[in-house]
From TrEMBL:
Alphabetical keyword list: Membrane, Transmembrane, Transmembrane helix
Pfam families, per database record: DUF6708
Membrane-spanning ranges: 26-45, 57-75
Superkingdom of source: Bacteria
The keyword Transmembrane is annotated on this UniProt entry: yes
UniProt cross-references to InterPro entries, sorted A to Z: DUF6708
Chain ranges of the DUF6708 domain: 65-202
Name this protein carries in UniProt: DUF6708 domain-containing protein
Naturally occurring in which organism (per UniProt): Pseudomonas monteilii SB3101
Keyword Transmembrane: yes
């Protein structure tokens, strides 16, 4: 599992943590700094703006709208996702339960929504992915992770996909999960002390503003118990 520690591990089920946003709080801090700089820029703009100059007025309004949009989507990206997006692997039922979060990143009015799903373990496939991109300064950025693909029963037709990990333990997490589902926790090294995803430090303001994990009651009970 690399540096990842399971949220819970017992004979019945394994729960692993997931984060769709890494380094929570960084984007919010950047948005706050941008607001301060923009407030100063806006003040200077009011001193020099000529209301009779239509082109200058239109440019100023466009700048205000653009910065407002950037700040809003930055804050949404940082505080809208839940504190954790765990996946539960129920060995007793041979099922997987994913606490997925979906939103349109470009829409500042979209708070997003949690879409919990459950599938049979036999439907799960793992795909390792990687992406390479160029930076403006000529550098290269490299991302990788593991995607879980869900196929229709008895076929290889993919009906759903969601991340297992991004820039994290990748294939090691998948090997750990497969060993747990096939052989049980006795075949794995003892996990470290689990971290409660709702237990956050006072300084982690983005996580404190983020919604707590709240499974649907029926799915919560089913995912933590044997048949």
């Amino acid at each position: 599992m690399g540096n990842q520690i399971p949220n819970h591990q017992c004979m019945t089920y394994l729960e692993i943590p997931r984060q769709s946003v890494s380094s929570r709080g960084v984007i919010s801090a950047f948005a706050f700094l941008l607001c301060i700089l923009f407030a100063f820029s806006l003040y200077m703009m009011t001193l020099t703006l000529d209301p009779r100059n239509f082109e200058s007025l239109l440019l100023s309004i466009s700048e205000i709208l653009l910065v407002t949009w950037l700040v809003t989507i930055g804050l949404r990206m940082d505080i809208s996702p839940p504190r954790d997006e765990p996946i539960r692997f129920n060995r007793a039922r041979q099922k997987i339960y994913a606490y997925n979060f979906k939103r349109q990143w470009w829409n500042p009015f979209d708070k997003g929504q949690v879409v919990p799903v459950s599938y049979d373990w036999s439907q799960v496939r793992a795909e390792r992915w990687s992406q390479t991109g160029a930076l403006p300064n000529g550098g290269v950025i490299f991302k990788w992770g593991v995607m879980l693909s869900i196929v229709a029963p008895g076929t290889n037709n993919v009906i759903d996909r969601f991340h297992l990990s991004t820039m994290g333990a990748d294939q090691h997490a998948w090997a750990y999960i497969c060993t747990y589902m096939q052989e049980g926790p006795s075949a794995l090294p003892p996990p470290g002390e689990p971290k409660d995803h709702n237990d956050v430090l006072w300084c982690e303001f983005a996580l404190r503003l983020a919604p707590k994990v709240n499974w649907p009651s029926e799915m919560d009970l089913e995912s933590r118990t044997a048949p």
